[in-house]
Every structure is written in C-alpha cells, then in structure tokens.
C-alpha cells in the first residue's frame, strides 16, 4: 500500500516537472498533433520540425504528450518526437547567425584596432612634437632667466649711472655758479681797470698842460 502511494506521488512529481517545459519537434519533417492520446483521435494540425511547443502534460503509458503551440493551439503528440533542444537545422541556423555576427563584430574590432593603431601613431608624433616644444620652451625659459639677470644688472648699472649723472649735474651747477662769479669778477676788474685808465687819462690831461706851460715860462726867462 505504501509502495503504491509512493509510486503515485513519484508519477505526480515527474508529471509536474514535465508540465511547463519547452520542447521542440524533432528533426522529422512533420508530425501530427491529435485531439487525443492515440491514432484513433483526429489530427488537429501538422507540426513542422523545429516547432516550439509548451508541455502541458505527459502520459508515459501511451507515449503521448499534451502540448500547446505558440499560437495557443492544444493537442497530443508522440513524446518520442519531442526534444529538449531545438532541431539541428535550427541550431545550425542559429550557429551560422551567431558566426556571422561574430564575423561582423570581428571586422568591427579589426577596424577599431586599425583606428587605435593610427591614433597611437598620431599620438606618438604629437608626443615627439610636444617633447621638442618642451625643450624649446625650456631653452626660451633659460634665455629669459639670463635676460632677466642681465636686465637686473643693467637696472643696477642704470641706477648707478643716474646717481653719477645727478652728482655731475650738481658739480656742473657749482661750476656754472663759479663761472658766473668769475665772469662778474672779471667784469668788475675790467670796469675798475677802465675807470683807472680814464682817471689816469684825466690826470695826465691835467698835468701835461702845466708841464708845458712851466717849460715855456722857463724858456721865456732866457
């Protein structure tokens, strides 16, 4: 009694597992789907190889499986004509499609790789140009530093020259003042000399007539 109950539960478990599974019509060209479990039942439709059906129930005694097509049509087919994998030709078609997609992807990758190689070459050239530019900038910076140092030295020298110029200008002003003083003194000296000459001329003019008169008087006495 217990064994019979166990077998019944096992059958229910197997049937439950079978229900809801997806099966495929085998590589046979076409199979019949009947309204019942046996050849005595009428054919409801013909299923071509690779047709996808949903398992609703499976009767291992009769060897028939209750299925439903994707369009919703239900019926019974021989279980031995059902497979858990798609038909070979469908798998082949899928494999060919996948292969074609892989080839296309491979071509895309090759194109991308070629583009990346070209980009790498361009980047290498740019890197070389940037390196050359960097060296040039470094040289220019060194030159600027040298120029800046020279500019600082020139600025210091200019400040010293300006100080010397100011000192020379002061000395020049002093010399100019002294020169003006000398000019004024010379003018005064010449004025004094002129005045003395005039005065001497006047004196001489007064004395000479008297001397002549005296000489004449003395000559008259003889």
Would you spell out the secondary-structure blueprint of this structure?
Elements: H1 2-18, E1 22-25, E2 30-34, E3 43-48, E4 52-59, E5 64-69, E6 74-78, E7 82-83, H2 88-220
Antiparallel strand pairs: 1-4, 1-7, 2-3, 4-5, 5-6
CATH architecture of one domain: Roll
Major beta sheet, strand line-up = 6-5-4-1-7
Counting DSSP H or I runs of 4 or more residues, the number of helices is 2
Largest sheet: 5 strands, antiparallel
By CATH reckoning, the class of one domain would read Mainly Beta
Structural class: alpha+beta
CATH-derived topology of one domain = SH3 type barrels
Number of E strands: 7
Rounded mean pLDDT is 79
Catalogue the unreliable spans. none
Rg over alpha carbons = 68 Å
Taken in chain order, the helices and strands follow as HEEEEEEEH
Principal-axis shape equals: rod-shaped
Descriptive terms for the model:
single chain; alpha+beta; 5-stranded antiparallel sheet; two-stranded antiparallel sheet; rod-shaped
